[in-house]
Amino acid sequence: MLRQSTRSIAVCASRAVARGATRQVSQRGLKTAVAQGLRVPVSSWRNSMVVSRAGFHSTSLLCAETVKVPQMAESITEGTLKQWNKQVGDFVNQDEEIATIETDKIDVSVNAPMSGTITEFLANEDDTVAVGQDLLKIEPGEGGGAAPAAKEEKPAAPKEDPPAKEEVKPDATVADKAKPEAPKKEEAPKPAPAKQEKPAPKETQKKEVEQKVAGSRNETRVKMSRMRSTIAKRLKQSQEVAASLTTFNEIDMSALMKFRSKYKDAILKEQGVKLGFMSAFAKASCLALKEIPAGNASIDGDSIIYRDYVDLSVAVATEKGLVTPIVRNAESMGLIEIEQAIAGLGKKARENKLALEDMAGGTFTISNGGVFGSLFGTPILNMPQAAILGIHAIKEKPVVVNGEIVIRPIMVVALTYDHRLLDGREAVTMLVRIKEYIEDPARMLLEPKA
């Protein structure tokens, strides 16, 4: 019993010494403990190393995070980096726009996922970037600490320039020593006049040529935008794939113009929208497509897809090109609802705020060239649609009505159709129905909903 108690006391004493040594090591440091001749157990060395490592990593270091190219749409996997809206070193707030990516249809904004400072760009302007690709790096933080540092570095550079200029001054003495050689060079001017006399005729010839050419001969090469390139490909594809044919007709706009002038002020006051001609043509087209469903169909491989709804594509001209935002289920809308939808889409298009879902799909298109003064034209199919209606400017013409010549406001309309889907009889019938509805707007109210 005495031996066991003695052993236990010795073990406890050794543990106490080890704990004391460990405390001294942690307080004074390992080097100090060794210098003082303290016995430091191996475990205390390991614990001290862990403590020192933990102390080293206790400071949270902010690492730059990589921002990737965002998802744009199911059918779009890449785009062109149009421009950087910020520079390296700039501080950006969360959701602030950093860059703009141009796609085949619209421009997509890249916004900051967090507040911080831009540290590096991983792509250049005009580069083609894919969805999920690394785009830039941002160091998270508040207040933009890195930006002032970048600004302070700029003034430091010019200070080094003056010494460089001063160092050049001593070389002037070397130039002065070279002056005695100048008289040797001055002896050569005698043959110089003879040499100058030879180019003189060439200069006179250049002046004569410049006088003959009138106006500028400058040329500017600009890279085609992605949207314009896509439009070109789609239109060329339309010519190569579809069997396009166009039929024309004239519409007397008298009745619709009277209808519009009678109700436009009241509708503007009560509904806040201007009543135009586009809504009437949209409604008439929906009713005609109900009678001729092939005009609202499309070809998919060896099959024909017929639809019981009309997603109306309305052609809108913008600075970047022609876009066709869509009025969904136009067949179920009234004139005022269609007018409101078209006005909203047109505003978004002009402000470059159209989303991809605003232009995806479309079963029938109306293109209004009359707003630019076009008298008539042949619209081109918006594939894979089967038909497109082109409406034009209204001009007063002499026409025969009940055996008498009268002056009436006439619009020439054109229907381009895919002859693979529509025969001539169906296409002409469809355009005639549109003509009848426009010349007698009240008839549209008698028709059941499309």
TrEMBL record:
Q: Could you give a GO molecular-function term held by this entry?
A: dihydrolipoyllysine-residue succinyltransferase activity
GO terms for CC? mitochondrion; oxoglutarate dehydrogenase complex
Record keywords, A-Z = Acyltransferase, Lipoyl, Transferase, Transit peptide, Tricarboxylic acid cycle
**Which residue range or ranges hold the Lipoyl-binding domain?**
64-139
Q: Looking at the Swiss-Prot or TrEMBL record, what is one Pfam family this protein matches?
A: 2-oxoacid_dh
Question: What InterPro entries does its record include?
Answer: 2-oxoA_DH_lipoyl-BS (IPR003016), 2-oxoacid_dehydrogenase (IPR050537), 2-oxoacid_DH_actylTfrase (IPR001078), Biotin_lipoyl (IPR000089), CAT-like_dom_sf (IPR023213), Single_hybrid_motif (IPR011053), SucB (IPR006255)
Compositional bias (Basic and acidic residues) spans? 150-211
- For this protein, the Enzyme Commission number is 2.3.1.61
Disordered as annotated region, ranges? 138-225
Query: Mind telling me which PANTHER family this protein's record contains?
Result: DIHYDROLIPOYLLYSINE-RESIDUE SUCCINYLTRANSFERASE COMPONENT OF 2-OXOGLUTARATE DEHYDROGENASE COMPLEX, MITOCHONDRIAL, DIHYDROLIPOYLLYSINE-RESIDUE SUCCINYLTRANSFERASE COMPONENT OF 2-OXOGLUTARATE DEHYDROGENASE COMPLEX, MITOCHONDRIAL-RELATED
According to its UniProt record, which protein family does this protein belong to?
Belongs to the 2-oxoacid dehydrogenase family.
Q: What is this protein called?
A: dihydrolipoyllysine-residue succinyltransferase
Naturally occurring in which organism (per UniProt):
Naganishia liquefaciens
